[in-house]
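Per reviewer request, we include the raw input and output of the structure prediction for the construct analysed in the revised manuscript.
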Amino acid sequence: MKKIEMGYYDIAENTELLEYLKEKYKQGKIDILLHGYSHEYQLNQKKWVLK
């Protein structure tokens, strides 16, 4: 298993995942949506908020 460090990664570099998603999309088995691109928070006046 490949060890993955914390950080941002370009999905274009994950060719195995892209091929899998493209095939499932062509088969009509999945829809592709964007939920967000990070889950980073910062403390703002004693409350955690999205960056």
